[in-house]
């Protein structure tokens, strides 16, 4: 079994630590991008739902207004 010299072992340790740091940075970047994407998607979905419910409310109010005006015209 071959043993590594102290200098070689030091280089290997530094290389392993560098790999770990790279993986950590990649994970951090991936987490940040996924967080940004999720927040953007949530904002888009909330705005779409807001527009949908607002349009439904407008349609309901217009429909109620037309029904009320029709009943008032029939009764009047």
UniProtKB/TrEMBL annotation:
Segments traversing the membrane: 31-53
Question: Could you tell me what this protein is called?
Answer: Uncharacterized protein
Keywords attached to this Swiss-Prot or TrEMBL record, sorted alphabetically, are: Membrane, Transmembrane, Transmembrane helix
